[in-house]
Specification:
binds adenosine monophosphate; about 280 residues; six-stranded parallel sheet; Rossmann fold; single chain; alpha/beta; about 35% helix
């Protein structure tokens, strides 16, 4: 497995594989690798001949009061996990490869970036769309894979790639969960043992809300009940629990096709997000 640290070496390696007729998948991450990340690599290797993972904790997607400096970092451990999943290369950009001192350009996807994660984390999706555009342009892969765990992010990235005419196909991968339903996340490392017991109640409340919409409850009523359930379980704050179209993110008024329930809530120092199909 190659460890690549410059954009020139990344582009050359990918181009070399493509010149030999091999399709290349890219799986961007911020590291602190878990089974969710590795599932993206495995899907990449099913759909392409080579898979390149990236590790970059992107400062531009963190707000001033967020966890950029404390975000878990473990390069050695991450490399071992990517190697065992069969990655062909890992790109860990050296400082200066992503944002030079005179860096000025941002990528913003309008409209679908304005609600939910976009409303509760100003600038977040601009940071994500900017870094993912750069990673895709630096590597020019055939496909790039992102988790449905971050469903709105996946939609923002698909829209960005389409609108900027990037030559890469964007694929979504299903959310990997613990046995008790908690979606895997690098940030789960922040949970205390007591909080870890409470954490799956978010997914449970979402399942209950989805079930009540399927059996006739109004979506906003089911979502309000889910918020009460999550707070009663011990979460401190609910940023949102919304039932929306998974295509347009318009709020759902009644049961229809393609609805999803989206949630973000704070437990101790950990902000958890999740989504499931209704
Ligand atoms: P992150 O390192 O958290 O920025 O995530 C990198 C990629 O892994 C993103 O495309 C995420 O959506 C995806 N991902 C994170 N957690 C999971 C999970 N539990 N299941 C599937 N994909 C995930």
């Amino acid at each position: 497995m190659d460890v690549i640290r410059t954009k020139a070496a990344l582009r050359a390696r990918v181009a070399q594989w493509q010149a030999a007729g091999e399709a290349v998948a890219l799986t961007p991450t911020m590291g602190a690798v878990h089974e969710g990340h590795l599932s993206l690599v495995r899907l990449g290797l099913e759909r392409a001949d080579r898979c390149v993972a990236t590790i970059f904790v992107n400062p531009r997607q963190f707000g001033p009061n967020e966890d950029f400096t404390t975000y878990p970092r473990d390069e050695e451990g991450d490399l071992a996990k990517f190697r065992s999943a069969g990655c062909d290369a890992v790109y860990i950009p050296d400082p200066g490869q992503m944002y030079g001192t005179d860096y000025k350009t941002e990528v913003t996807v309008t409209d679908i970036s304005d609600v939910m994660e976009g409303a509760s984390r100003p600038g977040f999706f601009t940071g994500v769309a900017t870094v993912v555009s750069k990673l895709l342009i630096q590597s020019l892969p055939d496909i790039a894979i992102f988790g449905e765990k971050d469903f709105q992010q996946l939609a923002v990235i698909r829209t960005m790639a389409r609108d900027l005419d990037l030559p890469t196909e964007i694929l979504g991968a299903p959310t990997v969960r613990e046995a008790d339903g908690l979606a895997l996340s690098s940030r789960n490392a922040y949970l205390t043992p007591r909080e870890r017991e409470i954490a799956p109640s978010l997914h449970r409340a979402m399942i209950a809300a989805a079930e009540s919409v399927r059996t006739g409850a109004a979506p906003h009523v089911a979502a309000e009940q889910a918020k009460r359930d999550v707070l009663a379980a011990g979460f401190q704050q609910v940023a949102y629990i919304d039932i929306r179209s998974q295509d347009t993110f318009a709020p759902a008024e009644a049961l229809s096709e393609n609805l999803r329930i989206f949630a973000a809530a704070t437990l101790g120092s950990c902000r958890l997000i999740d989504n499931i199909a209704v």
